[in-house]
Amino acid sequence: MTRKTTLALAAAFLAFSAPLTAAETATRTIAGVEAPFKTTTFTENADPMAAIDAALSAARQSGKHVLLVMGMNDCHDSAWFANLIASDRFAPVRERYHIVYADIGMPHRGIVRNPEIPKRFGFKIKGTPTVAILDADGEVLNRRAAPKWRNAASRSDDEIYNELMQ
């Protein structure tokens, strides 16, 4: 392959896989969701530790993994991610995992809720959502990738789907 062809292919790939711009993100929609950047999925007064323990117990029985989504309702990336996972297209993702939404606030912005959740799994939260894939014993399987979800609203639906279905 010639150098020009290689450079052209690399440029095309980067353009295709680049995160969405702020303007593109602001106008995104999710089929069947009226307000994709708003959610009530992260229940502020819930007991996320009990929900995690129940999901881990279910994972031991089913052989599935646990998808632990640490975020909050007022975070646009957390809301986008929760709404996307709830959409029809992501039904196979919901079938693949036991999903727990843990309201941890936005510690990186000084809003701290349920700090024992990220601590239990060894995370220092740098952005939300932080999405951990856990095995049935509670071991984090995607430690390096988990914090990278904090830009979920800027990622393509295909990228999110493909990463969660690996």
UniProtKB/TrEMBL annotation:
The keyword Isomerase applies. The keyword DNA damage does not apply. It comes from Sphingopyxis witflariensis. Residues 1-22 form the signal peptide. One of its GO terms (molecular function) is isomerase activity. Keywords: Isomerase, Signal. This is Protein-disulfide isomerase. It comes from the Bacteria.
